[in-house]
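Onboarding guide, step 5: your first structure request.
Type a short instruction followed by the sequence, for example:

Predict the 3D structure of this protein.
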Amino acid sequence: MDYIKYIVTESLELMYFKFLFSPENPPRILHATKTSANFKDGGRVDLHCQASGDSQITYQWFATEFNGYDKDISGSRYTHNQNTGQLIINNLQHGKDSGYFYCVAGNAAGKIRSHRVLIQVSCKSKHRILKITVSQKYITL
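The system replies with structure tokens like these:
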């Protein structure tokens, strides 16, 4: 919202100043998932972000690879709730979901970014342990 203030100087000149005024404050992060964790392939993770502010706050989640490149977190395995600040990742995948995640909370007055949290997804073991017994004549597996 803009406000204009008019001032009359001693020499009777009319001067005006234009001010940009925002009655709102940008959001402030109150709580966000902080604990880095390890998860197994196929598992699920819930990340949370909560902020305070003068007007309705919306939330977005972002992720980066370990090398700093942006990670795509769109698709059916990802559920973003822009009103509550929750991100759910279903069916975690080692090659796709390991990385750093962070939340951005915003309102009409501005945006703020949460700290990042490390999510590591470990592979499912594809090796089987075989029992081998040896007798005098035969090897059985």
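Each response can be followed by summary notes, for example: Residues 28-122 form a domain with the Immunoglobulin-like fold (CATH 2.60.40.10).
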